Amino acid sequence: MRSLKVSDVMSNHIEPVRCGTLLTRVVKSLLQNHVTGLPVVDDQRHVLGFVSEQDCIHALLVSSYHCEGDPIVDDVMFREPVTVSPDMAVVDLAQNLGAGKPKVYPVVDHGKLIGIVTRTAILAELARAGCGIELPKYASADD
Questions:
Q1: Alpha carbons 72 and 17: distance in angstroms, whole number
Q2: What is the four-CA torsion angle of 28, 34, 36, 37, rounded to 10 degrees?
Q3: Rounded to two decimals, what is the model's pTM?
Q4: What sign does the dihedral 45-48-51-56 (CA atoms) show?
Q5: Any idea what DSSP says for residue 134?
Q6: CATH superfamily of 6-129
Q7: Which of 46, 87, 100, 111 is the most exposed place for a label (fewest CB within 10 A)?
Q8: Where's the CBS domain (predicted)?
Q9: Do residues 115 and 33 make contact, with C-beta atoms less than 8 angstroms apart?
């Protein structure tokens, strides 16, 4: 299990959000991809920020109340997101998860976004590997 890396469980099919994107489009992407947040990148895929469901909810409530129109992601994104390396051990990342920590981590290699890893993906991998659960009798201890 220790040899399992973030790159083994990350998703790389989800398009990141680009600066200048309307928040309603961000919400659509969050819902379509079943994730709670997405990295915000520039044209070279450098991570500039992170936008979560909670950011969107708050911004849409405020803009709706004040009739301000559709905000853009730049106005609401968190500008210092926590990123992880594709070579980081899943076990190490799992040990760092906790209350108040991100549920989605941008995976960055050589300064560029290559994917995301979610708490859900880590949980699924830990369950699959048998950490903390009783394995069926036919399963190998190495699975």
A1: 11
A2: -60
A3: 0.82
A4: negative
A5: P
A6: CBS-domain (3.10.580.10)
A7: 100
A8: 10-68, 77-135
A9: no
Contact 85, 107 (CB under 8 A): yes
Structure-token pair, residue 46: 């450098």
- Report the number of secondary-structure helices (H) and strands (E) in the chain: 6, 5
**What residues form DSSP beta bridges with 52?**
37
Dig out the tokens for 58 from the structure.
Answer: 């708050």
Residue partners of 2: CB distance under 8 A and separation at least 6: 89, 91
| Per-residue pLDDT tens listing for the chain (143 residues) | 558 899 999 999 999 999 999 999 999 999 999 999 999 999 999 999 999 999 999 998 888 777 777 899 999 999 999 999 999 999 899 888 876 788 999 999 999 999 999 999 998 888 887 755 543 443 333 44
Domain boundaries, the chain: 6-129
Beta bridge partners of 104: 118
Which residue matches tokens 């659509």?
28
